[in-house]
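pasting nicotinate-nucleotide adenylyltransferase for the record, 187 residues
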Amino acid sequence: MIGIFGSAFNPPTLGHKNAIIQASRSCQTILLVPSASHAFGKQMLPFELRYRMLLGFVHDIQSQIPCPIDVSDIEQQMFHEGFSPIYTFDVLARLEKELGTSELAFIMGPDNANPETWQKFYKHQEIDQRWNKILCEEQQPIRSTRLRQTVAEGATDDRLLNFTTASVVDVIRSEGLYLDAPLSTDN
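structre below
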């Protein structure tokens, strides 16, 4: 089974890593899908920066995950084709076609698994019927929002490593990211 983990990844955190570890118990491969045009209107850094951070993040954690992890730019491709916003259903349908398998599982954290939130997802009932879901518990409450706030507060690199990986910190520092008020209050 291929696990599909979509998120803003703004930026990727150790909370994301924990969800990946949980999902890896049920998956042969995990595909990380950064959002290009968020269905709930989250404000995010440009896709290219989040994608770059995510590639570094995967490099940093892959040896700790028992299955391969890859990063997909499928949402960016769909955005350039005119999809906006981009819905989970459409991403899963596209990946099913491109990967040639219906053995996909949508990886969900507790926020999206909350019934009130899940009911807001476009075609959520069809997702339930068509694909598997992997529900991850919040075992490490490390949120992107808190990491952005910590950067804006002027935290040291050592402190930031309590929230994310070294490659992500390197991109944040080299690009001067998140120095102002944090983008979005969501993960």
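The chain has a mean pLDDT of 93.
The two ends are 26 Å apart (CA to CA).
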